[in-house]
Amino acid sequence: MRADEMVSLYFREAAATIDLDERYYEVLETSYREIDAQVPVHRDDGSLAVFRGYRVQHNGARGPYKGGIRYHPEVDINEVRALASLMTWKTALLDLPFGGAKGGVTVDPSELSERELQALTRRFTSTISHILGPLRDIPAPDMNTDAQVMAWMMDAYSSKSGYSPAIVTGKPLAFGGAPGRREATGRGVIFSLDEAMTRRGYSLAGSRVAIQGFGNVGTYAAETAVEFGATVVAISDIGGAVAREDGIDIARAMEHVATGRSVVEMDDVDVIDGDAVLTVPCDVLIPAALGEVITTANQGDIKAEWIAEGANNPTTPAADKLLYERGVHIVPDVLANGGGVTGSYFEWTQNIQQFTWDEADFNDRLSKRLREATNETMNTAQRHDISMRRAAFCIAIQRVADASKMRGYA
Ligand code: GLU
Fold it and tell me: Domains of the chain (ranges plus CATH)?
């Protein structure tokens, strides 16, 4: 099943639960607007490489389109569509004044020099700039893009339109970035997980956690989990996975990967099979890397009772159903990783007001939003006796449907 079909399936199941009038289906299920364009780049060796770049605006009923830009060799229009739609549901669930969008370029950025990466980013930004704007569509980092890429995007946009920090979020702190935004996705995973576990009578403190992916989401999720008293027993990155019964020293692991090395080159840990990070004995599993990693083939081997989805779309619908049936608690992506876009909202709102908050204020508000959304999701799940994923979609779809109706779209 394609990624966009998976999200459609979740949409339809939730829409049926809330008895959504059929006439809303098409407007809420399909994208509003899609760009699929060439991104030509002059390589350092003088050759011309032509990449493919996308920006999909899924739904803008509740506010400007919002969502990240990813650089990955497997990006295609179907994946970007799926992720754009997830952004619509995520922003609605978190009650942020945004719609949903996503972008990407089909490229392996590790094969480009820094100059080539900057040229690609500037060309891609110019190509989509006519549909961007601080009150129209606001990109952010996603897989393999970071504050530097956002700085180039902002510069490319601002050179035509005047100083526009609110055109992207996840910017460097040197101009317009918000202290706390970089850590917000990973921290948010733990805030929502902690709230959900406590409400169901579990305790994150004392739990054993395994994390797939040690990038922007996985590192700060690990750091925050340790702050909450959990023990991180396994982590992984593109180079493989490592485990340690007594707990991995996360501060040291973060210093280690900051030097550009893989976790498998760390001392004092056991190297395990890369995929085994999903199935090691633990209480909580946090997939924080690619999509579609939890499937019917491996879900039966997962020992964790809790899964908090740091990644977008890490679980296939068939595996999701089986896990729910056997009682595994899944804090779904649209909730668990919603701290990223919530942090983006905090950054954007500071940019448009030209006023800055300190990091403690940022984190308090982040925690409050994530915990509220978690409780709303769990109330709905309880009321209908459905999974947290379906409940999250039910809340989000209702909000977007109401806005669409009032605007006269549907
Ligand atoms: N890329 C992140 C996500 O998938 C953040 C998006 C944003 O901040 O706009 O939620």
Answer: 3-172 (3.40.50.10860), 184-335 (3.40.50.720)
Give the distance (Å) from ligand 1 centre to CA of residue 312.
10
Ligand 1 atom closest to the Cα of residue 338 is 10
Give whole-number Cα distances, 91 to 1, 70, 277, in Å: 25, 18, 30
Which atom belonging to ligand 1 lies closest to the Cα atom of 143? Answer: 1
Distance (Å) from CA 136 to ligand 1 centroid: 16
Half-sphere exposure of 235 (CA within 13 A, CB side): 30
pLDDT in tens, 138-178: 999 999 999 999 999 999 999 999 999 999 999 999 999 99
pTM score, whole prediction = 0.97
CA of 392 to the centre of ligand 1 (A): 17
- Catalytic center residues: 102
Cα 53 from Cα 370, distance rounded (Å): 32
Q: For the segment 312-333, what is each residue's pLDDT rounded down to a tens digit?
A: 999 999 999 999 999 999 999 9
From 83, 89, 337, mutation site for ligand 1 pocket: most ligand atoms within 8 A of C-beta: 337
* Nearest-angstrom CA–CA distance, 221 and 186: 4
* Protein residue whose Cα sits closest to atom 9 of ligand 1: 67
Burial of residue 151 (CB within 10 Å: 0-12, 13-18, 19+) is buried
In 60-200, beta strands by DSSP E = 65-72, 100-106, 137-141
CA–CA dist 308, 213 (Å, integer)? 13
